[in-house]
Design brief:
Protein name: Amidohydrolase-related domain-containing protein
CATH architecture of one domain: Alpha-Beta Barrel
InterPro entries: ACMSD, Amidohydro-rel, Metal_Hydrolase
Number of helices: 13
Number of strands: 8
Strand content: 15-25%
GO molecular function: carboxy-lyase activity; hydrolase activity
GO biological process, one term: secondary metabolic process
Distance between the termini: 37 Å
Largest sheet: 8 strands, parallel
CATH class of one domain: Alpha Beta
Radius of gyration: 17 Å
CATH topology of one domain: TIM Barrel
Order of helices and strands: HEHEHHEHEHHEHEHEHEHHH
Keywords: Lyase
Helix content: 40-55%
Shape: globular
CATH superfamily of one domain: Metal-dependent hydrolases
Amino acid sequence: MSIETAVWSRRPQTGVRIVDAHAHAGPYSLFFIPEAGPEAMVRVMDRCGVAHAVLSSHLAIQLDATEGNAQTAEIVRGAPDRFTGYLTVNPWQDPVGELGRWGDDPCFGGIKLHPDLHDYPLTGRRYAPVWEFAQRTGCPVLTHSYDGSPYNDLAQVEEVAVRHPGATILAGHAGATPLGFDLAIEAAQRQPGLMLEVCGSFNTGPDIVRMVTEVGAGRVVYGSDFPFIDLRMSLGRVIFSGLAEEDRAAVLGGTMTRLLQWRSGLER
């Protein structure tokens, strides 16, 4: 059964391994998110045919990285086949200590930065331990990106990619706005270590097709921002985008699966 047929027949698809590269868990302080815990998330993932999600807790990205990272690890330990964690690094809350505490923990497959929430520029020196770790290990870094932001616009994302060519950087939301998509594509064309992650309120199927056409399916990854944003909406944009089947499979999970293999590479 094709993925489209599964959707129209309201059955979970099983033909493609879908990996959500941008998810969260837990309550958010600014507004109510119903059923934001991992058990409810798994139920929705099962309904949609999503095999795995890479997540950070809302607590970690917003208020308390230390306690939030512990929550993320607990979620992953409870369902390691369904979740991998992002280690959130808040530049104001002991970046070196958090990397030392969790950097070797297999619960975590990536690092999450949110300069807009942390009121600190992506190019700032407090993030230096993150880029050193990423270059040394191959650990991918997902950073929030938003056109026009004083903290993580596309010029800053590209600047860190230039400074740290050995790092794999995922531009979360791919710039977030139509102009941001243009700038993100241009930056990714210039910087081979820069990937585009496609979740957000303004992204459309044609935008995703253009990203794949201009930078390649191996550098575009599906993310949802679930449960912050409805998983079904973000998934539908990719499924019905018109991408070739092979490219769509890469975007939906193949590329992110490859990026998460860095730990097994270190162990060898």
